[in-house]
Amino acid sequence: MESFFAFVEFVKLIIRVIFLTIRSCFIGLFSTRKKDISDDIVLITGGGRGIGRALALEFAKYTPKHIILWGRTEETLKNTALVVRNMGVKCFYMVCDVSQSQDIYKNYADIKKMIGPVTILVNNAGIVHAKQIIDNSDEDVKETFGVNTLAHFWTIKAVLPDMIESNRGHLVSISSVLGLLGMRGVGDYCSSKFANTGFMEALQWEIQEYDNIYITSVHPYLVDNQMFAGLKLRFPWLVPPLNESYVASQTVSAVLYNQKCVVMPRIMLIVLWTKSLLPIDAMLPILKFTGVDKAMIDSPTAPKNVEFMRKTVSNQ
Q1: H-helix or E-strand spanning residue 123
Q2: One of 93, 108, 189, 221 is an active-site residue; which one?
Q3: In whole angstroms, what is the distance from residue 189 CA to residue 140 CA?
Q4: Is 306 a residue whose pLDDT tops 60?
Q5: Which of 22, 25, 130, 191 is most buried (CB neighbours < 10 A)?
Q6: Catalytic residue at 189?
Q7: CA–CA separation, 191 vs 246, rounded Å?
Q8: Closest CA to 46 of 314, 297, 238
Q9: Helix count and strand count (H, E) for the chain
């Protein structure tokens, strides 16, 4: 009898999975209902330049109540905030090292007093050292994880209690395809992004009872910006670099439609699907054929870029 009930539960599970899969595909393809963010307070880390700046300008198009920028460089933060204000949206910036938990807690307490609790958090700040694993100093690795991973813990620990109290919020992680697929020459970066992937999946379980708090993980492939300048693949025409504005627009769209995960470009889904099916010994020759194994160290512009690529590049 017990086995019969187990079988019935299993059949119910299969039917539910099929239903939820079809519903998710239908919503993704045909949903036209956008979320209104006119009463939201948006916090973007690494908001002064790069993807963070593009995100601030994209969010501003939908006139949120306030946009707050965090980063380590006051000049870039100030310039981005000015542009946002010229778009008719209130924008405030704070110099903040997101790798330091106490900086985050203090600054967030100030935000709550001056503006109110954050309802959309975008963890965007990132850093890459672009070295082989054995060439990374201990401080390099600590810094990478401090900015790329631990900062997500500190910011979410700061804002999530307010979101839970009001049952309202959206948590966004700007990760990378390199958080789903490893690459030679950026071991610290890949590791930190893989950690983010697991972190966001675990967080999804922890907030599932709150029906108005959403999570979005964003996994762009190669972005044409300073962080990965000089990186060249063997067939760039097959998967051309993404520009920052495109990544920002897709991210904001995912927030407006409450999408849980975004991988861009979509062709990378095929690569990730193939990786999940093939053994490692079979996958490595495919990646070598595309030039991924040498992309960070053998670009056509290597003679003038090698020293640059050995330095820290930050999107803060």
Answers
A1: strand 120-123
A2: 189
A3: 10
A4: no
A5: 130
A6: yes
A7: 25
A8: 314
A9: 11, 9
Q: What is the pLDDT, as a whole number, of residue 110?
A: 96
> Which residue has 């790329």 as its token pair?
148
Q: How many CB atoms lie within 10 A of CB 18?
A: 10
- Identify whether the C-beta of residue 239 lies closer than 8 Å to the C-beta of residue 233: yes
Instruction: Count other C-beta atoms under 10 Å from residue 145's C-beta.
Output: 18
Of the two residues 100 and 276, the one the predictor is more confident about is 100
Q: What is the mean pLDDT of the chain?
A: 83
Q: What whole-number distance in Å separates Cα of residue 128 and Cα of residue 227?
A: 7
- Nearest C-alpha neighbor of 116 from the set 47, 173, 52, 42: 42
The strands making up 91-95's β-sheet, listed across from edge to edge, are 91-95, 66-71, 41-45, 120-123, 169-174, 213-220, 261-264
In angstroms, rounded to a whole number, what is the distance separating the alpha carbons of residues 247 and 236? 18
Prediction pTM value: 0.83
- Dihedral angle of Cα 196, 199, 205, 207, to the nearest 10 degrees: -90
pLDDT confidence of 121, banded at 50, 70, 90? very high
Q: Which run of H or of E encompasses 220? A: strand 213-220
Q: Which of 130, 221, 219 is nearest to 174 (CA)?
A: 219
pLDDT at 42: 98
| Residue 213 pLDDT > 60 | yes
Helices (H), 87-137: 101-114
Identify the CA nearest to 208 among candidates 255, 144, 260: 260
Tell which residue, 264, 271, 260, 269, has the closest CA to residue 250: 264
Nearest Cα residue to 216 out of 146, 150, 123, 144:
123
Rg (CA), the chain: 21
| 142 has a pLDDT exceeding 90 | yes
